[in-house]
Amino acid sequence: MNWMCFCLNVMFLLESVLGILPAPLNVSVHSVNFLHILHWDPGPATPPGVQYKVFSRLSGETEKKTQNGYMTTATSLQLKLDKYKYYFTVQAFYNGTWSPESEEVSFSPFEQTLIGPPKVTVTECGNCIQINISLPEADKSSGIPNNDIMAIYKAKFRVLWKKSNKTEEVYKTQARSVKINNLEKGKQYCVQIQTEITMNKNTEPSTWVCTTTSIAELDRDGPHACQISASRGNEP
């Protein structure tokens, strides 16, 4: 350990004496609902006021392009990307000197962006509950038509529901409206929705949303609701 510390100190000293500007470190892309932010850390002993330039290339290509047409003193940059796979590097500039480029990091927007939890509303309808589901909107900078994430993915929803603390039931559906019938009256039921997307496994589930069935039996069928019978215990 002491030998490693000695080597690091020698390296930092050489960089200072020879005027070598260290490359940026820990380059990564943080992406939620198609809002893509590239982050990086200054290299060790980086002086204050250093500027950065971001380079990108497409998968299968060798030519690099500047992702930002200017240099920035910030250590993050919002990216505007299409559906391709990209590779990014960051380079520092200070006092007429360029650093080596950072290690290259890859990112594929449609496969790697994190899809946030679906929005879920649950209402009672007598001895049934009505569940309405919608995915979050894509960031406005994404260029996705109407910011509609559902329109670009053929998403399925895992519907988990349970009464009080009993074992939960699971169904899969592509419907945005689900009705679970044949429930006990006057009981609390809780629902959680998990999003399943074939080309993107980075999805977050909703929180558990609860409602209590009423004593009186009602019928509030939605015109496009998926019907699930609690007594059958099978997928729709």
Short description:
This protein has helices at about 1-20, 110, 150; strands at about 25-30, 35-40, 50-60, 65, 75-80, 85-95, 95-100, 105, 120-125, 130-135, 155-165, 170-175, 175-180, 190-195, 210, 225-230. With about 240 residues, it is mainly beta.
**Structural category:** mainly beta
Question: Roughly what is the average pLDDT, rounded to an integer?
Answer: 85
Query: First CA to last CA: what distance?
Result: 60 Å
- CATH C-level class of the largest domain: Mainly Beta
Number of strands: 16
Largest sheet composition: 5 strands, antiparallel
Q: From the alpha-carbon coordinates, what is the Rg to the nearest angstrom? A: 26 Å
Unreliable runs: 4-18, 231-236
Q: Please count the helical segments.
A: 3
CATH superfamily assignment of the largest domain? Immunoglobulins
Number of domains: 2
> What's the CATH architecture name of the largest domain?
Sandwich
Run of helices and strands: HEEEEEEEEHEEHEEEEEE
Strand content: 35-45%
Q: What is the 3D form?
A: elongated
Helix content: 10-25%
Would you tell me which CATH topology of the largest domain applies? Immunoglobulin-like
